[in-house]
TrEMBL record:
This is PTS system mannose/fructose/sorbose family transporter subunit IID. InterPro entries: GatZ_KbaZ_carbometab (IPR050303), PTS_IID_man (IPR004704). It holds the Pfam family EIID-AGA. The chain crosses the membrane at residues 139-158, 179-200, 229-246, 253-272. PROSITE patterns: PTS_EIID. Keywords: Membrane, Transmembrane, Transmembrane helix.
């Protein structure tokens, strides 16, 4: 299959990638920025306005990753948009969701917590000795990885994605990739719910004795009982309720939901429920 995207198209995507966080919002995080970055590719791939509209709607969903991971995902997503058929487009978003978590962790580990301290320490040693080379060295070495790495990640993600998809046109590889991405995405979301969302209750249930009818010291801690059955059950329950409300209203009342949850949390905390 002849490639539709040129080097110039990939270059424009790379330039827009560097401003992806400007339209950051609390509903889709980088979703709008990702759409803006991939728009040049979508306009080239879908000359029909209705197809273009559907493709753009596909990329208005929640998305968030490390900026260097964004580059690889952006290139790979453009390849999938170009090389897949109409019945395979549903596998694109699960792939994005499945990759954004692992690549965010990898980007933070390698760039933010490894490369930045290394070049920062070397640059600081020059600066402390009175040399102007220090900040210049850090700026250049950081951006060799940060900026140049993003560009080649976009190119590599697109080209390898095209090659891979062209070699597997007659197989169910897209369905398998979509399934694997869904599994990874669910694992990431599940771990985030358990580690980030903390909903616990101090409620206790007094149990009367069958013999004397007195409460005595028989008390059951509700949170301890729930943890034995399913750890982080309340966190999961709250997440599910919020998800259902947002899905039912298509995210239109996200701000009102946040304020309502804050007020409800204060009230429940005051009465000792949370």
């Amino acid at each position: 299959m002849e490639q539709k995207l040129t080097q110039k198209d990939l270059w424009v995507m790379f330039l827009r990638l560097n401003t992806m966080r400007i339209p950051l919002n609390y509903e889709t995080l980088q979703g709008v920025g990702f759409l803006r970055a991939i728009s040049p590719a979508l306009e080239k791939i879908y000359p029909d306005k209705e197809d273009l509209r559907q493709a753009m709607l596909r990329h208005t969903v929640f998305y968030n990753s490390h900026v260097n991971g964004d580059a690889a995902i952006l290139g790979l997503t453009a390849a999938m948009e170009e090389a897949t058929g109409p019945d395979e487009k549903e596998g694109i978003n699960p792939l994005k969701t499945g990759l954004m978590g692992p690549l965010a962790g990898l980007g933070d580990s390698l760039v933010k917590f490894t490369w930045v301290p290394i070049v920062g320490s070397i640059g600081a040693s020059f600066a402390l000795s009175g040399s102007i080379i220090g900040p210049i060295f850090m700026f250049i070495m950081y951006n060799v990885v940060n900026i140049v790495g993003r560009y080649f990640a976009v190119i590599y993600g697109y080209r390898k994605g095209i090659e891979f998809l062209n070699e597997n046109q007659n197989s169910d590889i897209i369905h398998r990739i979509s399934t694997m991405a869904n599994v990874v995405g669910l694992m990431v979301v599940g771990s985030l719910i358990a580690s980030v969302i903390k909903v616990v209750t101090p409620l206790e249930i007094a149990v009367k004795s069958n013999v004397t009818g007195d409460v005595g010291g028989n008390v059951i801690a509700v949170q301890e009982m729930l943890d034995k059955i399913m750890p982080s059950f309340l966190s999961l329950l709250v997440t599910f309720i919020v998800y259902r409300i947002l899905k039912k209203n298509q995210g239109k009342h996200a701000a009102a939901l946040i304020i309502t949850m804050m007020v409800l949390t204060i009230i429940l905390k005051y009465f000792g429920v949370l």
